[in-house]
Fold these 2 entries.
Entry 1:
Amino acid sequence: MKSTELLLDELKSALPGVEIELVMNPSVSAQHSLRVAPKDALRVAAYLRDVAGYDYCSNVTGVDWLDKETTEKIRTTKTVTRTVDGIDGIAQAAEEIVEETVKRVEPGCLEAVYHLYSMRLGPTDPHPPVVLRMRTLNRIDQVELPSLTPVWRAAEFQEREIFDLYGIVFTGHRDLRRILMWDEFEDHPMRRDYVDPDDFEYEPTPHDEVLKRAEEYKASLAAELPVGEVR
Amino acid sequence: MSATELPDLNTFLPPMIEPEGDLLEVAMGPHHPSTHGVFRMDVALDGERVIRLKPVFGYLHRNHEKIAEKTTYLASMPYTDRLDYFCSMTNNWAYALAVEKLAGIEVPERAEYIRVITAELTRIQNHASAVGFLMQEMGASGTPLMYAFREREKILDLFESLSGSRMMCNYMRFGGCRVDLPAGWIEQAKQIVAGLPQFIDETEALLTGNEILMARSQGVGVLRPDLAVNAGVTGVMLRATGVNYDLRKVDRYGIYDSFQFRVPLGDHGDIYDRYMLRVLEMRESVKILEQALPRIPAGPILDPKSRPRGFRPKPGEAYGRIEAPKGELGFYLISDGSGNPYRYRVRPPSLINLTILEDMCLGQNVADVVLIFGSVDIVLGEVDR
């Protein structure tokens, strides 16, 4: 069985200049994946379909990776000046080992994952299934990824679903609309930091009890003092 | 292919049809009697001819995936029953398989046998009802569907005595099954399976050579094999176009490689082929059941090492897929080491098989749209999730 590493080498030699890396999967399933830069995704996908034989795109899905804050304790040697207590009060410079807590924020991103198989090569398949991944630059405003629907039409509804539930904008998709939520809906419910609205906020046609609560809520917003003013 | 230029792609898009007269837009559904749930097709018609068709989803959406990410792994098992509520056993199996891949759990042999038996019984009752519904839509109101439901009820009785519920079985667990077979279950199952060939013969005698069925379905809703593969169509829909791809043979998950059965294939990819394939697959499933039921070994039904409560798989991800009656049903899981899945994704065959609904319907008569849609065999609980 040809491993994902070999396929990576094949891709790198066939498409020079392509940014692609191996992402190891630590679990027992050992389904390793290839992460490709969005700018090269369409070329890699076309190669995988037409040359490597991955004619069947089974599953397309999104993953939301939140900003990750890691705190680390680092031991560093520093030159520290100390005033020694005494009559003279001499300042001494000495090297000391100091522990520092460093906060690091890894920016989050949205990820699209494609599971590829080969039907043409069939059960005597020398190729392992491929998991292809792409990442957006951030989670807020740079959320474009190239659509792979020109290569596999199987992604058509699934990319619409990712757009709907995660908010990744697929450029080059021929019909990118919401698919499961209604068109007027504004948020992306599958994001990790999504907060359920109160029921009057998403009720398309509020009435009775719900309408009453919606109006009360609007009135409470209007009655709030602007910041800095005194009642 | 050079490194900088984009390749010339064959994009498999549906053709544009120029209308001859004025267009009439019709919303078929969401409460049309012939749709299998709440589903709408926005159809543009030129006389009787379909010029454009846009499916509209989401009426049954409850964000199953989000709910599953907020609960433990085990708590999602009963919810998978509600995806494709005709085939809860295969839904359970697909989810259990994905988790077993993620955590590396082994399944005892007796449990594998029970899984194959319940899955093949599910396949038979699903295909029987799919054929029944298709005939209902063709205007054969009642008889074929009632014949199918008579058999289906017997199989659901078996499921009820096994799991306590006819349709929402919630039967499988990570590493096996929930409860052992009750006393006398195998005998009862053998009896029902022995009666199935007669039911299939009866259905065939009623339908296969039927002039109306042939006239309405042959050459209607044709799907090309290259388009079917590219659009990710799976299951009976794919095999009716002649592509030999059955995960029971390809992945050999469970213990399917220890049974003798064939994968029936179609020639034309039309509605008639899909009907025929469902009938033939029922016959093959009966063959598997006839082999599996006498051979079922004694032993444990649950891996003693698997701990359903407090279950925390190591970080990583896994994609598990099985050949469900509707097509390839897959579950994609990412674990971050906690008790809840970080990402839980269902690959719904019903939704993805509808990608090519427009391609099949373009240029056909509006009356055939109902039949083409019926021949895809979907359940809206799985489409909308």
Entry 2:
Amino acid sequence: MFGFIAARLVTAVFILLGIVVLNFILIHAAPGDPAAVMAGEAGAADEKFLADLRTQFGLDQPFTVQLWNYVSGVIQLDLGFSYRQQMPVAQLIWDRLPATLLLTSTAFVISIVIGVIAGVLAAQMQGTWWDTVISTVALLFYATPLFWVALMASLVFSVFLGWLPGFGYETIGANYTGLARVLDIGTHLILPASTLGLFFTAIYMRMTRASMLEVSRLDFVKTARAKGLRSSVIQRRHILRNALLPVITLAGLQAGQIVGGAVLTETVFAWPGIGRLMFEAINQRDYNVILGVFFISAAMVLLFNLITDLLYGVVDPRIRLTS
Amino acid sequence: MKTFRLLTTVAALALASAVAAQDTPKSGGTLNAVIQPEPPSLMLGLVQNGPTQMVAGQIYESLLRYDKDLNPMPSLAKEWTKSEDGITYTFTLQDGVLWHDGTPFTSADVLFSVDVFLRETHARLRASLEQVASIETPDDKTVVFTLKQPFGPFLGIFEAGTMPMIPKHIYEGTDFANNPANNTPIGTGPFKFEEWQRGSYIHLVKNDDYYMAGKPYLDEIYYQVIPDAASRAVAFETGKIDLLPGGSVENFDVPRLTAMDNVCSTDAGWEFFGPHSWMWLNMHEGPMMDKNLRKAVMHGLDREFARDALWNGTGKVAKGPVSSVTRFFETDTPDITFDPEKAKEFLAASVYNGETLRLLPLPYGETWQRWAEATRQNLADIGITVEIVATDVAGWNQKVADWDFDMAFTYLYQYGDPALGVSRTYVSTNIAKGSPWNNVSGYVNEEVDTLFADAAIQANDADRQSLYTQAQNIIVDDVPVAWMLELAFPTIYRCDLMNPVSTAIGVNDGMRDAWLDR
């Protein structure tokens, strides 16, 4: 087990370095640079202005020197400085992390809980009217563009009904503290978390349903039935537990993206998370911020892949992990 | 009859007092405004983009403000004089002005701001400062600018976004770009910086030590960051936002929002900027070098349709290089109106032989994309094939700066005077690859160069008008760019927000005089 983990961690370091280098090359291949964008926003620039900015950003250095400076910084866990926002990248990401984790984790839980329960129900009622309804509703949320669902949710629940706030992380200027603040943030969280969560629910629902049906046809389930076990025990202990393996794989993939944020949801609901930070950084060619977010996201994906592999062994003891 | 007179008198008095009460500003209240995109910094001496000016214009001030006819008004300077030869300008500063940290504001701050800080950091002002021979401060309250020669637009460069005053005691001898104070800006303005939750809001609070007694009226302002245009409209509809600065929502949402109860709007407050839109026509190479093709394009554009269908009927069809709100605008220039038949005649006489021309829309949202589509249709109708090339902002900057286009939408500010915001687009000395804000088309006309150069250094407005009139006539006839619209960006606000726009830069410095009638 420990050998397996150590080997995976060593591999992860090399993969991360590869990702850093690849991202660096890709982002510098895109047209435009941060100096031109900043000068553009000011509506005027002369050669001195652009040259000063490029010197400040280190963009006047040869490409290989820029790459080496960045990679050696990352090795020392220094993600660089956002000249546009005049802050260290690590601090920018750290400031946005709580909002993003809150949104994506809540959506993650919503999608898994509702998705798995709906999948189990649909499998148990295969071919019935309920199965059709559950599958159709779930697919509807999956197939409809996320930004449209978000806007409609905002219109219905915020503009027409006035039940929920349509944007933001909390009520600005209210200066709530303690439980009142928790409730305020919770109220603001409902629409974005539900919108994002329902989008992923369909995937979990379909995966659970298909997996449940497949497992339920296997011999050991017939044996369990022949032994006279109760149906609920068979469903929970034998079918669901085995059917969860692909669901865990999927959850591992989604969990790895939790830190990356959700660009569309965060944009429509003005949620101050990392997804928006990254999207705006791409538009502004704020290289260090883009690379910093990519780095953290990639590290999280690798970490959660490792956790997923470890969970396999817990859920299905037949799986043994070796290096 | 006496009773009737008494009643009418009482009624008149009641009405008068009601009107007076409405006109008497009330102190207090919180204003919620939208800011988009989120500014990169609030240090106005370092960053002068639109969102920064909108927020930092309440924190920083300059020596003058401008009314809607672009006449200078007192700000940090209470009075000023100009010598007869137009060489020497003397400013007398207000009494009792303090920086937000309590340090007195003096002429030494003006000298440091202009001659040291902004000369290094402010590209647009640097060009104007080339005209300044010396700046002297004979005492704490007096600043004397001596020019190398008369410079007509000199009194027009003292607006907060162009020449913000920077605290010498904080910045002198430091690395300006990396001074930690940039994150907690200190100005002399009516509002002080309180907090910036990046991604959420910027919070300003009333400056209790402001030198104008009683002002500002508002207690605090929250500038809320809402990145999606539709969500900004929803925020206004649900009452969370009181003020949508011009350009905050898509044009197609404007009629719906302005039709709501207790909602007012105004096109005023952009006179200083005079946002002027056009299409660059690439004259460096290719068919656009042919004047006949450029004229065909110009006459082929249905700009009235664009104004009415895409801009809700706001703005004006541009008559040439100078906006009608900018000084020295000439009304009687050659005809460039929509005339498809005339366009086809020019096209037939041109070198164009059916090749596809690349059009770069401005990547600033849906309206600009639709405008590019309408333009492609207009030009297809007269026989020109156009391909729309999609880019993001950074890509647009690079393609325009590298002259990698045939036609490219843009709009620029004019800053009230042709010498400040118009000549840069047309003089041949301003042709240089690498910048999208110079003479990108590559227009070369020595006569125009001379006219612009001479007009800038005349001390007399009549002489300037004569030279600018000649320049405008020549340029319109040459069609180096295809002028589109004088843009209007309506400011939308609750009607109980009084006086949000009182100067030529609108909400950028208007919160000093704004108040809430609640």
